[in-house]
Sequence to fold (902 residues):
Amino acid sequence: MSEHTRPPDYIRDPHRPRVVIVGGGFAGLHAALGLARLPVDITLVDRRNHHLFQPLLYQVALAVLSPADIAQPIRSVLRRQPNAEVLMDEVTGIDVAARLVTLRSGAQLAYDYLVLAAGATHSYFGHDEWEPFAPGLKTIEDATEIRRRVLLAFELAERQMLEQGWHPPLNFVVIGGGPTGVELAGAISDVAQLYMRHDFRHIDPAASRVLLLDGGPRVLAAYPEDLSQKAQATLRNLGVEVHTQTHVTAVGPGWVEANGQRLHAAVTLWAAGVEASPLGRLLGAPLDRRGCVLVDDRLNPPALPEVFVLGDLAHIEQDGHQIPGVAQPAMQMGDHVARIVAADLDRRPRPPFRYFDKGDMATIGRMAAVAKVEWPFKAHLRGFPAWFTWVTVHIFFLIGFRNRLAVLINWAWAYFNFTRGARLITGDQHLPGWEEQTQAPTTERKPNPVD
Amino acid sequence: MSEHTRPPDYIRDPHRPRVVIVGGGFAGLHAALGLARLPVDITLVDRRNHHLFQPLLYQVALAVLSPADIAQPIRSVLRRQPNAEVLMDEVTGIDVAARLVTLRSGAQLAYDYLVLAAGATHSYFGHDEWEPFAPGLKTIEDATEIRRRVLLAFELAERQMLEQGWHPPLNFVVIGGGPTGVELAGAISDVAQLYMRHDFRHIDPAASRVLLLDGGPRVLAAYPEDLSQKAQATLRNLGVEVHTQTHVTAVGPGWVEANGQRLHAAVTLWAAGVEASPLGRLLGAPLDRRGCVLVDDRLNPPALPEVFVLGDLAHIEQDGHQIPGVAQPAMQMGDHVARIVAADLDRRPRPPFRYFDKGDMATIGRMAAVAKVEWPFKAHLRGFPAWFTWVTVHIFFLIGFRNRLAVLINWAWAYFNFTRGARLITGDQHLPGWEEQTQAPTTERKPNPVD
Fold:
């Protein structure tokens, strides 16, 4: 009998096994929902109280959507599922021999099955000291911080122009040309070129610069080359300066050093690298160089058939390629865990996981996108058709009718009125590096400000 | 010639006087909008980039609405008004002799007219050390902090019940029985009794307690006595424990001391007092004991006809009563400033300000309210008619169609689905005083959590 037909002899109570799910992202939530009708007791543990629809997080960062439009309390999603409970807590240890998860308080949760779906976070390649000057985009707090910085840069420039007749260059530097970097750069350009046209009296927001830096030969390196070229052309049409083969060697307050040159940067954003959650290390299983746990096609690390690792935390090869760390495979892995547990309970062999790739896409500013469609037909789309596909798919996968309605209204509002609904600056009014470049006021205010 | 018919001889350029407005609340924004068609140049200065619809702020604090639903960038509101510019900055000085406003950078703005509408903030009656334990509700940050604390209290109780089989009492203590305190207490009770019913497995949110403490003999002291009685009865029906004649003598982490007794408080909220913005002191004009500037019926402090003080910062008597610091008189004062400036420019006598009171109202939880209607008819309303009036009036006065739509949808959603759209916990997971009351875990987790 192979490992994958092994009966569930490791289950303490075969009539009602306990499933502990760590992480309420796409993978963990889909696992919980998929297990709804099985005779199991589920505890979903997450540090946050909400599931986040990360593909739209950049739209919170650029003031199109409100945080609550793309976040749902995990507890609400599972409120009518009696076999599931939600625990807002932090996992600090995993004892795979005793099958116990340790929580921050020291309390322990026993499991028969462990589903580890703790995701990934941004990586500064060993330069964590860059983080204060170049925030990344993973959480709601990251998004509102980026929103604060981008909107504040325009406000500070207007203020300084009015009070001193001069301001530092309004450069927005995005490091990393993957989907997040491309989406951020396109959206900042939209804000500057279109959405703030009538709002300022002393500065011209359209005169600001958006620079997208990538170390590789092209943006969207994971996409087919023709779509990379289209994306690059679309970005350039929007006024984004795309610099490939550009290696960032240092980041500081108000500047970025790339290819030996120091660029001024009013705001710097980090979209260059991700690394797996440190929880992957707690299993003692082999990891890849980014910290992802190597799992087989039953989603198990070697010799741990009761442990499933899913989503961005898992490293799975399929047809010689690693399955990418995006939403679609995460959801499919979550669904598949439920199928495996059902097979175990029926004492059937565990079905293998196979990622069904429907395609991939990224938006580039207002009404443009690139899409690699794999299903229901194969195509490379760009421009409006790609954008329309993107809108439809993203609305469809949002959890909750209220959120879909809110997002649709906000999108319609932004597109037809050229204004953005969530242009809030909260928190303090400091921008790293801005004040250092600002001299003391020398001229008094001119009498009439509206010339 | 009396002071109020004085021609505008203090205007440097009578053909295009400069108006500096400090504060983008109801008063300042209405002044700017009212001056749109006059030959003046307006600079509106605010520390924030947004105008806030404060009457609905408590709904952000209780997760019904998102911050962006009730906030508009001041710059957007005035984007099509060419005689107005917006400056996000802080006023640090006013030179009434030279007619100059000093900003944080040291730069100065010259004015011919100064409109001071800097509002009020909460006051802890000399006990600022209470603030970390009992936040008040004035800004978006205050509202999201209150939301964090209230939602976190339920999460921590569930966590501790699950991990240790015990949790500290879930008491929510609201200090101050004015409209804000009544609205907060009613809304917390709604959340606990109705909106979280199916969300927890180990605690019963409905078993939490909401205590409303007030030093005076009745809640809503500014309202007629019959409405106070109705409000109190409605609150008690909702399960709120109303304690009048209850003086708070100390506030600490996790507790409140009132009438010599120490109450446990998982979350304490402050709605007890307000004081005027410190900017009022910069005029050198007489103030009342809360720091409000005493102004005449032309909204001027003594001997400063080119300075107008409006809104919560102004102390104006009318028919022997002080005009209350709420939205309606603030808007009317803003409108009136435009009338006075128009009169000056036409060399007509300045019209006196008279507050036209249309009534006042406060909601008490789901579908109940009290309203004192003064116009178009006189009535004391309560229950559903008062609530319906409240909904209509608040939707009407919200700035921006998008916001009205968003608020209507969120309200409809909350009322029909018993769920709240913005149940986000952001920031850290610390609740002052909670951990001190939590012992180390002694029992291991019970095997089946869903009993």
Residues 439-451 of chain A have pLDDT under 50 and may be disordered. Residues 3-47+89-123+274-345 of chain A form a domain with the FAD/NAD(P)-binding domain fold (CATH 3.50.50.60). Residues 56 and 391 of chain A are 10 Å apart (CA to CA). Chain A touches chain B through 73 residues (CB under 8 Å).
